[in-house]
UniProtKB/TrEMBL annotation, chains A, B:
The lineage of its organism: Archaea, Methanobacteriati, Methanobacteriota, Methanomada group, Methanobacteria. One of its GO terms (cellular component) is cytoplasm. This is tRNA (cytidine(56)-2'-O)-methyltransferase. Its EC number is 2.1.1.206. Its main location: cytoplasm. One of its GO terms (molecular function) is tRNA (cytidine(56)-2'-O)-methyltransferase activity. It is found in: Cytoplasm. Keywords: Cytoplasm, Methyltransferase, S-adenosyl-L-methionine, Transferase, tRNA processing. It comes from Methanothermobacter tenebrarum.
């Protein structure tokens, strides 16, 4: 089980990037995103709307006190940062334990103490790019591509893969609980 | 050689996402991004500034007439779209030819003809997430992780990977041309 903690969200500036972080987290197999920084109910509503339509389970919530989350976290804490150890050198070690993982994604102004609290500071390349791409490639490497086959539960719509068009169909995954 | 065509850029709304697309393209081994949609000199300046500091080669440019680019393109055209064929089912075929590749990333309103023009419509999951994560994971799978080892030329600064801190050093990759 992987959860993501998004630090330092700024409502005006980061709405789209944080939304993309949440959607990438969901698409690549994380089970939850906790957003810290500024409260942004609209963003959470948008992400929940995607989960409602495309399937779950996936949770997104706001938590101002990120220190509390870290203090209470029982599994490993993995901080994605361009300053860290290259993912290809450390991913095997990260996968050794079966504990839950908390993945921290921040921005340029992550508090220095995060580097100390994290069990692993991991660099998805030591180059500047994006928390969205860093998280997606981390999850892809962590799940070894199996996340690409993930089926979501109770979707209202889903895509039929197509060589050259758009095919969307209603639901299609049987919901036994609802029957 | 991989180039990326970013369609439909909107200056006000997409500045950060398109910047992240460009930086992910650079970090994960593409050699160039061509931006279409609205002209955005500031964005191009920002990306060039990253390349100047962190190393190249990497090119970013604006081209209003994307149809011309597609018409003149000699290699394969790959359109990243959630409606396409799952990447895990098609990546091997995409890699068969050694031609240059043009990767198209758009937004929700990609013109329908792109689906026809593309040699491959490729889905990095059939779920909604982000052009940034789709591009990064595509490049990661295309380059099979070798892109993570990429060394950029003539950086002014670079990171020394660190277990728990930030280590940045000046350049460090010898620039024979400049000596």
């Amino acid at each position: 089980m992987i959860k993501v903690l998004r630090l330092g969200h700024r409502k005006a500036r980061d709405a789209r990037i944080t939304t993309h972080v949440c959607l990438a987290a969901r698409a690549f197999g994380a089970s939850e995103v906790i957003i810290s920084g500024e409260q942004d109910d609209k963003l959470i509503e948008n992400v929940n709307d995607v989960t409602e339509r495309w399937g779950g389970p996936f949770k997104v919530s706001y938590q101002k006190d990120w220190k509390k989350i870290l203090k209470e976290w029982k599994g490993e804490i993995i901080h994605l940062t361009m300053y860290g150890i290259p993912i290809q050198d450390i991913i095997k070690k990260i996968k050794e334990s079966k504990n839950e993982k908390l993945i921290i994604v921040g921005g340029p102004r992550v508090p220095g103490e995060i580097f100390k609290i994290a069990d692993f500071n991991v660099a998805v390349t030591n180059q500047p790019h994006s928390e969205v791409s860093a998280l997606a490639v981390f999850l892809h490497m962590f799940f070894e591509g199996k996340e690409l086959e993930k089926e979501f539960e109770n979707p209202k719509i889903r895509i039929i893969p197509s060589k050259e068009g758009k095919k969307i169909v209603d639901g299609g995954v049987k919901d036994d609980k609802a029957s």
